[in-house]
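Ribosomal-protein-alanine acetyltransferase: structure, please.
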Amino acid sequence: MNAHIDVTDVILETERLILRPWTMNDLDDFYEYASQSGVGEMAGWKAHESIDESRKILTMFMKEKKTFAIEYKDNHKVIGSLGIEVDRLKDDPEYQSLYGREIGYVLNKDYWGAGLMPEAVQCVIQYCFKQLHYDYLLCGYYNKNNKSRRVNEKCGFQFLKEVDFHTRMGTVEPGKLNIIKK
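Here you go.
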C-alpha cells in the first residue's frame, strides 16, 4: 500500500550530503545535471533541452513533495535527486496491508563513482523505516544500468522480480525490481 510521503519540512544529513526539499534557487544546478547526456536516460527520461523544461519539472517536484534535492556539503551544489515514488506493488495482495514506496534517483555525472548515491539511499532507507514506519522499500534498475545495480546491492536491496519499465521516452526497458524490508 502506498505510504504517505511529504518531504516539505524534512532535512536529512549524511557525512557529505544534505537531502532537503527543492527550491527554485536550485534551478541552475538541476538543469546542469538534468541536461547531461546519459543521466536521465538511465532513469527513463531524456536529457533536458532547456532551462524552461527544468523549471517545469522543478515546479512539479516542489508541488508533489516527494523528491529530495541532494546537496553536496563541500560546495553547497545540488548534484542529484532522490524521489520516494508510487509503489508498484500497491495492488499486490501480499503487500496490501503493508506500507511502502519505491525510490528512484539520479546523480550529476561529475559525482559518479564516489559512493555518494549509496550514502543518500541508505539515509533515506533509515528515514523511511525509523521515522515513517514503512514496512518495505522498492528500488529497481534497467539491466543495462550497472551503476544503479551496484547502488541497490550496496544498500541491501534483494531481488524481487524481473520487470519491464515503461519510460517517459516511450521505450520499454527490461530490468530488476528489488526490495528491502524493515
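Notes: The radius of gyration is 15 Å.
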